[in-house]
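Tutorial sheet, problem 5. The two components below are modelled jointly, 509 residues in total.
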Amino acid sequence: MGGVEDIELRVNGVTHWVPLDPRVSLLDALREHLGLTGTKKGCDQGACGACTVLVDGERIAACLALAVQYGDGREITTIEGIGSADDPHPLQRAFVEHDGFQCGYCTSGQICSAIGMLAEHRAGMPSAVTADVAAEHVELTDAEIKERMSGNLCRCGAYDGILAAVRQVASIAVTEAPAR
Amino acid sequence: MRPFTYHRAVDLDDAVRAVAGTGAVALGGGTNLVDLMRRDVEHPDTLVDLSGLALTPVREQPDGGLRIGASVRNSALAAHSLVRTRYPVLAQALLSGASGQLRTMATVGGNLLQRTRCPYFSDTSAPCNKREPGSGCGALEGLHRDAAVLGTSEHCIATHPSDMAVALIALDAVVEVRSVRRTRYVPLTELHRLPGETPQHDTTLEADELIVAVDLPAPVTTCSAYRKVRDRASFAFALVSVAAGLEVRDGTVAAARLALGGVAHKPWRAVEVERVLTGAPATEETFRGAAEAELAAAVGRPDNAFKIELARRTIVAALAGLLTERGTR
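Model answer (structure tokens):
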């Protein structure tokens, strides 16, 4: 039963063949097998959002994802594929500018989540605080941002800075693709 | 986590055959199943991954209804224009569930078949008749603030955690179920069951049966809403939730649909509410009477008895909200 098989994972534009037991989560595959430790392990049960990565541009909790489910050429983007110290993503710059973190452990998840969230909003997705779910356009108010980011916890309590950073980037209508 | 065989279904027939195997369990988004496997609550021999299947997407039906494939993601369903315009209660229920990340992963079929979040169920060191029949119910005398108040038994007071299912019940959903033996159509009200003496069975499905789609008839009203009461404003399960639809003509309730979440072992179709409302004046007094009738049989325990009054008030508030919404359109 089970056993290790080579799984094709496409991460940040690079294809890897990784020998994996089907029990391995996408989070552990990224961190332990590919050395991409920017994605963090918090609760390991989908409650904190520290492990958020993008798959085909959509945000998921990598801790509850079995890596074998995400092979077959799906495009996985981690914080390492979002930006670098020399060439940060606008959200990364905004987090620095607005003090969107203290310890930084939740930050990569916050940023990946915000990128996915902004894409959802651009595509017309309403939220639980949207008054009229049938409306074609929903204004991204602070209440909307808070609700849409509720899957990402920050135990330092840097929420004001996180909100300010996301608000700033949302307002300048980022058109860059999440993965570069 | 115990070892298992991973099987990626290549098409629906393959999935149905694979699910019929001993110890085989279907895998959707994994947001509940993977967690329970890690806790050793679930230990399937084989996981049949349905995520690669192009099962029926969301499709409009000739009768004005909607067909929703079982592997459609919760986020995609909530964003679908027909859901948002014709079935707002469903969009709202989906969006009130879990978080953005989990809704992207979670499938319609998996959402229906998710397990209770009763703390005793996921704690293998505690008694739980649902997890280990005959071991007892830790919640009866223990932590039961989140537990059920309707349709309970002395063996189990767990609740069904889904928001989506509550809305689907209020929309008269029918589930298409396939196995190697047959295809059958199960009204969603008959998919989940009350605990009775066998709380280990959440649903009426046989072990080899697979949910492949959910069918919605044309809505009896587009005036519908989901109201969820919880301990924090977002990313929490319902203490009580209400999915309601209300069609009013000349001040009289022409049609009413109402279901409750967070109060029972299954998403609870409020047939008493619907019976009292239909043909009655659309007033708060009627709504209160209807809520009273539905909750008359409710049984609370010391820490969850508040849910009975909360359910009454939430029913009235949801219906009154729809009345106001109608008046302003």
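Marking note: The interface with chain A takes residues 1, 3-6, 8, 27, 29-31, 34-35, 38, 45, 47, 49, 51-52, 75, 78-79, 84-85, 88, 91-92, 95-96, 98-102, 104-105, 233-235 of chain B (CB under 8 Å). Full credit if you identified this.
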